[in-house]
Amino acid sequence: xxxxxxxxxxxxxxxxxxxxxxxxxxxxxxxxxxxxxxxxxxxxxxxxxxxxxxxxxxxxxxxxxxxxxxxxxxxxxxxxxxxxxxxxxxxxxxxxxxxxxxxxxxxxxxxxxxxxxxxxxxx
Length: 123
Description:
Layout: E1 2-6, E2 9-12, E3 17-24, E4 32-38, E5 45-50, E6 56-58, E7 66-71, E8 76-81, E9 90-97, E10 112-113, E11 117-122
Parallel strand pairs: 2-11
Antiparallel strand pairs: 1-3, 3-8, 4-5, 4-9, 5-6, 7-8, 9-10, 9-11
């Protein structure tokens, strides 16, 4: 599956952004889908996952602020980000994998990646 993110940008603290990840080559319903982010000088970290069974996971720092969703008709993944903070500033990546494991929470477990979308939150 090929992935392409869109929707990044710059916002002030407290603002909102929605990232989109358009998939091609296969249907995303077969895949674990995830959003990762990487800030300069830091490791890539998992933000949120929707597994192939439809269950979701969020890292603690984004719970109650971010929402992951899928639209099967558009074969796309979304990340709604509210109440953004400067520490959310990072390059955000969409990822997918066909693993039969129940959860895939590590970047090394994903084989398909988008090119990234920059999110910058200013104070």
